[in-house]
TrEMBL record:
Keywords carried by this UniProt record: Membrane, Transmembrane, Transmembrane helix
Domain called Major facilitator superfamily (MFS) profile: residue spans: 8-385
A Pfam match: MFS_4
Sample GO molecular function, one term: transmembrane transporter activity
Protein name (database record): YbfB/YjiJ family MFS transporter
Any one Gene Ontology cellular component term annotated for this protein: plasma membrane
Coiled-coil parts of chain: none
Keyword Transmembrane helix listed: yes
SUPFAM superfamilies given in the database record: MFS general substrate transporter
Membrane spanning stretches: 9-28, 40-64, 76-93, 99-123, 135-153, 165-184, 213-232, 244-264, 271-290, 302-323, 335-353, 359-380
């Protein structure tokens, strides 16, 4: 495989993540203050719009667990690119909350295609072409998407109204769709031969079930900050008007963190890397509670960006390696828990913020869930060790 061709494939995958995750999902975060100021949206509605988006993501994850046909996966992946553009643009053409719910749900479906189908297809391509089966570069697209939406938000917030801003985000996605589509390899040629063992692991094992619980907790830690970080920053007198900068910092931290976690994982082991990533994510949440200074919130954004992306990248790559024949399926099973957390947590935190007037209680609840996630992660590791021991003792 020529290095130039490999670079084009990786670039296409990263750009697709920027479109289907960065813009289709994350453009909403810097848009929250704009829509609240222009339309007077309540915190509950803001949280519900995020919840509906993740409901679409969760639905997409469930559907993907039932898909084994590689050709269908490729077609749905391509459809996700188109849907990401259209659903973003149409957000600016209505003020009907129910239509917003529909559009954010559809956008969530496209995000699941970008994250899960995209990661699975790329993993298959990497294995087929004897490349390292790591997804750090792929998930750097999430950080790049955050950076892009933050920069665009700052450029367009003054000269354009909130509805025009949505259209601009969609047009940016349309431009990026061109290289993402044209550099896409023929993923249909990447099918791996099935083995008698079925792929090296049991998707319904105790290990996977506990790992799903751990990933649920990580989903809560991720989504609360992803949804409300800009709004939290803007609510602080000393940070009013600088919310976009905080979001940019999170994205800048996330972009290189993926491959740095890959390096750390190779040297020190994936479990130690995951323990550290979970702990750092919890620390970033704690800092939002105890330190309202500009420096404190910036540092929290750096730690958050670097940690959440590592959790996603390492978790999905780990299960993808266990099930190389059909990596999208176990990734989707794991993501079901992550998506469920993303559907529930914004609504809960938004409700608490409406009742109490700030995000403190919601952040404390999130911190507790992340601490529980570290415990679940440890139990998953122990379960894996027991299952590997039992497999080694059983006769072939």
């Amino acid at each position: 495989m020529k290095p130039k061709e490999t670079m084009k494939v990786l670039a296409a995958s990263v750009i697709a993540v920027v479109v289907m995750v960065g813009i289709a999902r994350f453009s909403y975060t810097p848009m929250i203050p704009e829509m609240v100021a222009a339309l007077g949206l309540s915190k509950s509605v803001v949280g519900m719009l995020a919840t509906v988006n993740y409901a679409g993501y969760l639905t997409g994850a469930l559907l993907i667990t039932r898909i084994s046909d590689l050709g269908l996966k490729v077609r749905l992946y391509q459809l996700g690119l188109v849907v990401a553009v259209i659903s973003t643009i149409l957000m600016g053409y209505t003020t009907n909350v129910w239509l917003w719910f529909v559009l954010r749900f559809i956008s969530g479906l496209s995000t699941s295609a970008g994250m899960l189908l995209g990661a699975g297809l790329l993993m298959s391509w990497l294995i087929k072409n004897n490349q390292k089966s790591e997804l750090g570069v792929f998930f750097s697209g999430i950080g790049l998407g955050i950076v892009l939406t933050a920069v665009v938000a700052e450029l367009i917030k003054e000269p354009f109204t909130w509805d025009q801003q949505w259209v601009i985000y969609g047009l940016v996605a349309l431009v990026l769709l061109v290289p993402a589509w044209s550099w896409m390899p023929d993923y249909r040629a990447c099918a791996l031969p099935r083995t008698a063992g079925g792929g090296g692991g049991d998707e319904r094992s105790r290990f996977i079930r506990i790992l799903q619980l751990a990933y649920f907790c990580a989903g809560v830690g991720y989504v609360v900050t992803a949804t409300f970080l800009v709004a939290i920053a803007e609510s602080m007198p000393r940070l009013s008007g600088d919310g976009w900068l905080i979001w940019l910092i999170a994205g800048l931290a996330a972009t290189p963190a993926c491959w740095l976690w890959d390096v750390f994982s190779r040297r020190w082991g994936q479990w130690l890397a995951l323990y550290l990533a979970y702990t750092l994510n919890a620390v970033s949440i704690l800092m939002l509670i105890v330190n309202a200074s500009m420096a404190g919130v910036m540092l929290s954004a750096v730690i958050y960006g670097a940690s959440f992306i590592g959790i996603v990248s390492m978790m999905l790559a780990m299960v993808g390696r266990v099930f190389p024949e059909n990596p999208s399926r176990p990734m989707s099973r794991l993501t079901f828990s992550y998506g469920l957390a993303q559907m529930l947590a914004p609504a809960v935190v938004g409700y608490l913020a409406d009742v109490e007037g700030d995000y403190t209680s919601g952040l404390w609840l999130t911190l507790i869930v992340m601490a529980l996630g570290v415990v679940m992660l440890h139990l998953a590791r122990k379960a894996e060790q027991r299952e590997q021991g039992s497999a080694a003792l059983s006769p072939e």
